[in-house]
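To start, one record:
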Amino acid sequence: AAETELLRLQTELDKLQQEQKHAHDRHQEISRDTAALQQQHEEELSRLKKQLVESQTQLDEIREEVKAARRQREELVKRQKEQKAELQEKEEKIRRRQQKLDRLDQQLQELKTEVVMKQTQLEEHEK
């Protein structure tokens, strides 16, 4: 009976030792997997941080390009307004000169008419 009990205890001890070894192996496997996952996560985080910095740099460059384009557009609009004002001023000068020419032309026609009338009167008078 003692031998049977000893054998049963020995079997139970072997079984517990096997379970302990299995648990220990499983723990080591989980630790390795956890370490590998941790390494992957750190690498992924590092890659994402690098991408974030690159994206931020690109965004900053694009913002600068947009600012430059806006400045160019504003300068172009300003130049166009200035050119339009100059053109309007020149058109106004031309209009005033044309009016002056029209008045002078009218005066000339009146003078010609008057000269013809005087000449006719003079010829009539000489007869």
About this structure: The longest helix spans residues 2-126. Helices lie at 2-126. The mean pLDDT is 96.
